[in-house]
Design goal:
By secondary structure, this protein is of the alpha+beta class. The protein has helices at about 10-30, 70-75, 75-80, 130-145, 155-165, 210-215, 225-230, 235, 240-260, 265-275; strands at about 30-40, 45-50, 55-65, 90-100, 100-110, 115, 180, 190, 195, 205. The protein has two domains: about 5-110, Phosphorylase Kinase, domain 1; about 115-275, Aminoglycoside 3'-phosphotransferase, Chain: A, domain 2 (Alpha-Beta Complex), CATH 3.90.1200. The radius of gyration is 20 Å and the shape is globular. About 35% of the residues are buried.
Length: about 290
């Protein structure tokens, strides 16, 4: 199973290739670029506002090695078209092609109104969101949780192994009862004025409270935001799935910090793990000696 943690790092050659793929997509889809194209995390994608026949849209082009250009991660935005009751972009067209060892996928989507809550995934300051915005977040996550899907982006065995390696805990992680989640709910993927959620590449089944845990982890540098998230989603976060989710999200953030991303967050991550380990932690149910 491919995860975003496995993508290549930034290189000049990769950015040139992405710009070329973006230009090809504009021509193939009859679009005009508007403003500056922006690269995604670790240059896995490139995106920009585009125009056609007087309308404005969002064009995203993603790349992958040929043997990984399949499965849930590859088709996430397209599969999200089945989701109702959630404020998100709508996919309009898809094109894919091979170029040497790589495969490119161009996705034309409706342009979300409003603006992102933060320019980075990890929160650096208080975004000043009002109660109606938080209410919309809760309502949208609830609507998502009842969608019918068999998309599996998270791997229970990878989650179990990472938590064991990082924290020395052998946890019983069972995907039965998992519910649909966005999977990448950080501050650069959430909009305000009005509320909406972007980037549905990673959505799929996850433990209860996974989205709340993901957002909380990316908020820990700002206690004035993290503490209300913990209170607002307390029932989910303190469930068995919520504890598993939080510990796994901490492993992801610590892994990225070890690679040089958001190192300032490390002390807050360790403090949060310390608090978590003082709670009831679900452990693996091993067979007894008699059995």
């Amino acid at each position: 199973m491919t995860t975003v943690d496995a993508v290549a790092t930034t290189s000049t050659a990769l950015r040139i290739a992405l710009r070329t793929a973006h230009s090809r997509s504009l021509a193939d889809l009859g679009l005009n670029g508007v403003g500056r194209a922006r690269f995604g995390w670790r240059d896995r994608s490139i995106g920009s506002v585009v125009e056609r026949a007087g309308g404005r849209y969002w064009l995203r082009v993603v790349w992958s090695a040929r043997d990984r250009a399949r499965g849930a991660w590859w088709t996430g935005n397209q599969d999200a078209s089945r989701i109702d009751g959630v404020a998100k972009p709508r996919l309009l067209d898809v094109r894919a092609w091979e170029d040497g060892p790589l495969v490119y996928r161009a996705e034309l989507m409706t342009l979300l109104p409003g603006r992102v809550c933060a320019t980075d995934a990890v929160l650096a300051g208080v975004p000043g969101l009002d109660e109606p915005w938080w209410g919309e977040l809760e309502r949208n996550l609830e609507a998502l949780s009842v969608v019918t899907t068999d998309r599996m982006v998270l791997d229970p065995e990878i989650m179990r192994r990472r938590i064991s390696v990082f924290f020395g805990l052998e946890m019983d992680i069972d995907s039965d009862g998992w519910r649909p989640s966005h999977g990448d709910l950080h501050w650069n993927n959430i909009h305000r004025d009005p509320f909406a959620i972007a980037d549905w590449e990673a959505w799929g089944l996850a433990p209860r409270g996974y989205d709340a845990a993901f957002l909380l982890g990316h908020s820990l540098a700002v206690p004035h935001v993290a503490d209300p998230i913990a209170r607002r989603f307390r029932r989910d976060l303190e469930s068995e799935g919520g504890i598993v989710s939080q510990l796994y999200v901490m492993t992801k953030l610590l892994t990225r910090a070890d690679a040089g991303e958001h190192e300032h967050l490390v002390p807050a991550l360790h403090r949060h793990v310390g608090r978590l380990l003082g709670t009831r932690v679900p452990v693996a149910r091993r067979p007894s000696a008699a059995t």
